[in-house]
Amino acid sequence: MFKYLEDFVGNTPLVKLKRIPGATSNTILVKLEGNNPAGSVKDRPALSMIRHAQMRGDIKPGDTLIEATSGNTGIALAMAAAMMGYRMVLLLPKNSSIERVQAMKAYGAEVILAEGMEAARDQAELMVKAGQGLILDQFSNPDNPLAHYESTGPEIWRDTAGTVTHFVSSMGTTGTIMGTRRYLKEQNPNIQIVGVQPCDGAQIPGIRKWTPEYVPAICNFDLIDRMMEVNQPEAEEMTRRLAREEGIFAGISSGGALCAALALSETVENAVIVSIVCDRGDRYLSTGVFPA
Question: Which cofactor does it need (predicted)?
Fold first, then answer.
């Protein structure tokens, strides 16, 4: 039986690291979200938000959709919009990598660059108020974490045979951590949920520390067991190590999350720690994080 492209979103590999963890009683697993069709964990909420909005009758093919994004959600939405027949307008910070912008345009999306992520969110709201399109709003849309409650969480539980003890995720919109947390806690309330944010001054694509007025509505910090911070140099070095020592070509937020997972590993024993590898490294080649 033939399948459609959307049928291949999710069910990404969960692999055990061999060298980076060193000698430890813990098992460090990483979930390779770059294996999704558009190359990131954001394929899940992008498809979920469009599909559920369409099912409710909020949107229909041919409509213009508007979204502010730092990159991966935009690429995923551009793919989903092309697949499902929507016009996509994406607002990005000016410091977004050229690979991300080009990928969105390749899928047929219109790209508008803003001064920063907050400015992009504000401009998207203004465009909607001006009647220029409809917004999915990944920051407040419950269909974002729902995608991870319905897929990411169950996959981790299944692929660890219920042995997962800790889940570590970088935090951007927070959809991944909130939805996965909900599912895993329903299976075992003792599973520890660890959120990763950047240190002050760090500019790590895909990881954010929002000012209070911009904290995503889908986020509830009280439901996260532990918050950890990562600085930019260590996130970038871990990203390079992932490629050199494990053969996993990933983005910088993935290196940041793994830094936190390894720091966590030093404080526990006989744990099964799952960390999210959010995307692939090829969309960061122009940033200088990898050797020229």
Answer: pyridoxal 5'-phosphate
Q: Is the pLDDT of residue 202 over 90?
A: no
Q: CA-CA distance, 226 to 218, in Å (whole number)? A: 18
- The question of whether 42 is a catalytic residue gets the answer yes
Contact predicate 246/239, CB 8 Å: no
Cα separation of 186 and 49, whole Å? 23
Nearest Cα neighbor of 153 from 267, 12, 47, 261 is 12
Q: Which is catalytic among the residues 40, 42, 97, 170? A: 42
Closest listed residue to residue 21, CA positions, set 221, 192, 269 = 269
Residue bearing tokens 């009758």:
57
Distances (CA, A) of 181 to 168, 239, 267: 10, 25, 21
Instruction: Round to whole Å and give the CA distance between 177 and 257.
Output: 12
What is the distance of C-alpha 15 from the center of its chain? 18
Candidates 48, 253, 254, 275; catalytic one: 253
Please report the pLDDT score of residue 203 as a whole number. Answer: 83
User: Quick count: other Cβ atoms within 10 Å of Cβ 201?
Assistant: 7
> What pTM did the predictor assign?
0.94
CA atoms within 13 A on the CB side of 135: 23
Number of helices (H), then strands (E), in the chain: 9, 10
**Nearest CA-CA partner of 193 in 208, 210, 207, 180:** 180
What is the CB-side half-sphere exposure of residue 144 using CA atoms within 13 A?
22
For 259, phi then psi, to 5°, come to -55, -45
User: Integer distance in angstroms from the first to the last C-alpha of the chain?
Assistant: 44
d(CA 26, CA 206): 27
96 catalytic? Reply is: no
Closest by Cα among 95, 86, 44, 85 to 67: 86
Amino acid at 284: Y
Phi, psi of 168 (to 5 degrees): -115, 130
Q: Amino acid identity of 14?
A: L
